[in-house]
Design a protein that fits this description.
The structure is a homodimer. Chain A is α/β, with parallel strands linked by helices and about 475 residues long. Chain A has 2 domains: about 290 residues, Succinyl-CoA synthetase domains (Rossmann fold), CATH 3.40.50.261; about 160 residues, Succinyl-CoA synthetase domains (Rossmann fold, 3-Layer(aba) Sandwich). Chain A contains 17 helices and 19 strands. In chain A, helix 7 packs parallel to helix 8. Chains A and B meet through helix 6, helix 9, helix 11, helix 12 and helix 17 of A and helix 6, helix 9, helix 11, helix 12 and helix 17 of B.
Chain lengths: ~475, ~475
């Protein structure tokens, strides 16, 4: 892609001024919702509604044509019907707008490939990056920009989610709040007529607000470019991919949905492995892993320790540690002896360490501190099964207090319970500790940190420039 | 096991009178909590606290010795220290108590096998079923019996959960409320000195309050008996197993936790398959599948249809349907044509049927009704990705309204969203429809219904007596 176009991609995500072409006063129309969401969610730039039939929309002065807007425009968001897009685009070009995104549908996804090509050609000729068409919009929590018809901003954080499914973008916003999964940017890429995963991933390499990039992929435009760009960016920050259309039937559904060639599963898996992309098993696993990778350092080395107050949860953790490629090992003797001093005789001082159901906050603190401090230990999964006698928030606070002193070693937490553990979960996440409801998911998230650590170790061995051990935060 | 002992197992779960031996007035003691929980949660039988040093506990008259209790005792729950259990048990025998359970620990799990054997011998000699020792207690929501130190009753329903991990029993109670996973009985089986999975499963065959049995297993006592009993019971109601200790390390942890010989994974998998037991991948998957199997009829035949309002969720569903053994097929032409009339031109009338994000309650109703009514269709997975324009409760109500007319065909639902879909989820579950947050989990639950349906088809082919197609409710 043309360098000038690439350099302007920043205007899609950090525009100082946005024109909404097709802004409307009818609350049922997307042209209304986009303007409303920008205002309601506190977008920090300037907004120019464009509509020849209105003087004012939601208190903002409205212009009949983008050429009338009294300002440079960083981003034109187009929401007019497909048949009018070409005309509008010619005005956008004359206005020297820096970037364009198109929410409108009715292009290649309905067989109108020619129309889509015409639009791309205009943008390419004038060096304008084009996102879409057929997107739900662009969200950036870092400048409170909800330039979409998603009803809310997602929960703010460090994950950028790029999705080929617009519906998932909308549907998952509530989920990010309920699960406190922090999102930096949410980018619906629609038909990927010009800009696809490749260009956005490359842009995000230098985005300071993004610590991990989660992708929902049905098909990419250019497999080789995708793999190369992803590998380059992976050295700086982790990429996680939910690949849909893996089955024959799924590939057929993807063709009908986004027109994507879902391609050969093995090709994608090979590309992911080559590029250091962490593969996810569906939506939940994708967000689980993205959460861990956005908050925690990679797991360097594979000396993983599980600390639990429930024996059964410990057994399950051992199983999943093996299944997910980070098998538990015997602890060094001195560590076993040190732990033995801290737990009841009917507990277990080896890996998984079983504190027993009588463990209070101070027991967690003492054992976790002993474990984290030991040089043999590379990472920890801490498990709490809600017990009648203990307050999960106390336990969570104890865990957070210890980890604060060992931030170069990753931790994931499992809290088993219902409403009792909800506040504890919030406490942990707000302290940068990813927490999950089952041993399986906490171990799977830790395995993702290991997978990414392994990639970085390999790249370092190859002389590549890789991120430092400590995460910035 | 002796027939007389087997016949008395009902007294462990439906006692008309319970003596708590070791009842206490000290709220920090388990002997207090057990009596308190019985009263607080509304146990419908008679309660006799036994303690030589108290006249009254929580308003109940206290007896110095079980022999003084002025009533027949169906169940003696023992909470005195291990060293005193033998003495107490001799009095229990003299009182002709019908069944015994022991919460106290300090037996084979701490190497005191002789003491445990002595207790078993006494019970066996006097034909008394013994549950435990080293259990957290017995819960039966059908008679409001919280005979345990679990702080609450679980959410009431049709799943009986038998667990070798007591901590999980306690920890998961809150989860059952948060997830509205309905529990009939929660049985902690501790050291399984006499009664194990085998005997309880057999008892549950005729339990009218149990529609599905979920097992957390580290190791069973008698593999052959377990397989035979399970196969017999599976013909009447589904069994689901979470097998822990599958890895070498997990098996070692299990040995340290419950003293179980976790055994060969393949042996267990073979036994599960033979017996029609649905295997679960950890806790979440176990409850997901148990929920579907407790609420829905099995999936007979494998013509599964997915109806979605999100294309991406449809693609993922197709992938998981294939992965979990219920691959989606093309719909019959007449069904495709009928659906085509009901959806927008940019939707998809084939499997997965994509209603598009513009689908309202009535669209779901019309399409689901058309699909369910078609004789080719065996079961349906209905997916809703929260969209800005629709009310999930309306959609949920529409789904429930249609399914009410087709209760012999199973349905599972996926609702993607945050708090917006919470009430819809409650609505669905209270209408007997299992609902999950991702396509993966909704499809996995449907695959469990298929797996069980396949087992019943096979058994029927072999001339076995199997349950009817329609679920009782």
């Amino acid at each position: 892609m043309d360098r000038e176009i690439k350099e302007k991609i920043k205007y899609l995500l950090y525009p100082r001024s946005v024109a909404v072409i097709g802004a409307s006063r009818n609350p049922r129309k997307i042209g209304f919702q986009v303007v409303y969401n920008l205002i309601k969610d506190g977008y920090k730039g300037r907004i120019y509604p464009i509509n020849p039939n209105a003087d004012e929309i939601l208190g903002l002065k409205c212009y009949p044509n983008i050429l009338d807007a009294p300002d440079d425009i960083d981003l034109a968001m187009i929401v007019v019907p497909a048949s009018k897009v070409l005309n509008v685009l010619n005005e956008v070009v004359r206005k020297k707008v820096r970037s364009v995104a198109i929410i409108s549908s009715g292009f290649s996804e309905l067989g109108k490939k020619d129309l889509e090509d015409a639009i791309v050609n205009i943008c390419r000729e004038h060096k304008i990056p084009l996102l879409g068409p057929n997107i739900v919009g662009i969200i950036n929590t870092n400048n409170n920009m909800n330039l979409s018809f998603c009803p809310h901003l997602p929960f703010k954080g460090k994950i950028t989610f790029i999705t080929q499914s617009g519906a998932l973008a909308i549907g998952l916003i509530g989920w990010t709040w309920a699960s406190r999964i922090g999102i930096s940017k949410l980018i619906s890429i629609g038909n990927m007529a010009m800009i696809g995963f490749e260009e956005l991933i490359e842009f995000l390499e230098e985005d300071r607000d993004t610590e991990a990039v989660l992708l929902y992929i049905e098909g990419v435009k250019n497999g080789r470019l995708f793999a190369e760009v992803s590998k380059k960016v992976s050295r700086k920050k982790p990429l996680i991919a939910i690949k849909a259309g893996k089955s024959l039937r799924g590939a057929k559904a993807a063709a009908s949905h986004t027109g994507s060639l879902a391609g050969n599963v093995m090709l994608y898996e090979t590309a992911f492995k080559y590029a250091g992309i962490v593969s996810a098993d569906g939506l939940e696993d994708g967000f689980d892993k993205a959460l861990a990778l956005s908050l925690q350092p990679p797991l360097y080395g594979d000396n993983l320790v599980v600390v639990t107050n429930g024996g059964g949860a410990g057994v399950l953790s051992s199983d999943y540690a093996e299944k997910f490629g980070v098998p538990l090992k015997d602890l060094p003797k001195d560590l076993v002896n040190a732990v033995k001093e801290l737990i009841p005789p009917f507990g277990s001082p080896n890996n998984p360490i079983d504190l027993t159901g009588n463990a209070y906050r101070d027991d967690y603190i003492r054992v976790l501190d002993t474990v984290f401090r030991h040089p043999w230990v590379d990472g920890v999964v801490s498990i709490y099964v809600h017990a009648a006698i203990t307050d999960p928030v106390e336990i969570a606070d104890g865990i957070a207090q210890v980890w604060r002193n060992y931030r170069d070693k990753p931790i994931t937490v499992c809290m088993i319970g219902g409403r009792e553990v909800q506040v504890a979960n919030i406490w942990l996440r707000d302290n940068g500790i990813p927490v999950y409801p089952t041993p399986r998911r906490a171990i799977s998230a830790m395995a993702a940190l290991r997978q990414y650590g392994l990639f970085l170790e390999r790249e370092r061995g190859n002389g590549g420039m890789v991120r430092n051990k400590e995460i910035s935060s």
